[in-house]
Please model this.
Amino acid sequence: MPDRRSFLSRSAAFVAAAGLGGCTDINQTEWWPRFLGSADAVNKWVERLFAGGWSLAREYSKADITPAFRANGTTSPGTDRYNALAANGFADWRLTVNGLVERPLSLSLAQLRAMPARTQITRHDCVEGWSCIGEWTGVQLARVLAMASPRPEARYCVFYCMDPMDTGGLTQTFYYETLDLVESMHPQTLLAYAMNGENLPIPHGAPVRVRAERQLGYKQPKYVERVELVASYSDIGNGNGGFWEDQGYEQWGGI
Ligand SMILES: Nc1nc2c(c(=O)[nH]1)N[C@H]1C(S)=C(S)[C@@H](COP(=O)(O)O)O[C@H]1N2
Ligand SMILES: [Mo]
Model:
């Protein structure tokens, strides 16, 4: 019987064998060693590897909530447009749902709030090696997708965010991420507009962010304003399924 330790080290070996650990990009030296050293992160990845398509992420109790949930990456998009939306309580913000759908949608925050809500207390794991537990409330993405009625060719959701990212390139890039339809339709995948019982704070992605609870931190896009249904993400960004994936990180969340 393999013990837990050898199971974990075999998992790490599998990760390395899959080519996921052999990166040389300078950007990765910061978090790769810490990530591979984090049993929690490896655990979560292994859990996902062996879990069925419809397994549920663990949910916690109110007592487990981290008092000061860390904010990471963009903590405010900082653009004039975003600041104007925020100043007006996001009354003018709309969520567009388009692409491979029968009925493209444009939904206000009030419309999302009027839909049936789900609240869940879950653990967020960032690949940089930290975790926080928080309570999220929002509408299940599956409900919004059902309204839009994805076409049979649709396989992924692309989430477009309002925060510009610095890539050193000439063209402006905004954060984006993708989830496949299994992950998108999962009951714990939310368009979350509240955190710990309050309106989603700007550092955590106001007015709406994705919570996909079986996925790592970077697969939880903040400041979302458009969901596009696509057959493939090969022509989105550099074609690797997300902003960080395009910066050279392998796709951990896509399994
Ligand atoms: N739009 C956007 N979404 C994002 C990011 C970002 O920089 N911009 N960072 C990602 C990463 S790496 C993490 S760990 C989480 C952080 O979420 P938090 O700020 O609520 O802790 O958001 C993810 N989603
Ligand atoms: Mo992260």
Remarks:
- Residues 72, 126-128, 217-218 surround molybdenum atom (ligand 2) (CB under 6 Å).
- The two ends are 27 Å apart (CA to CA).
- The chain has one domain: 56-246.
- The first strand starts at residue 94 and ends at 99.
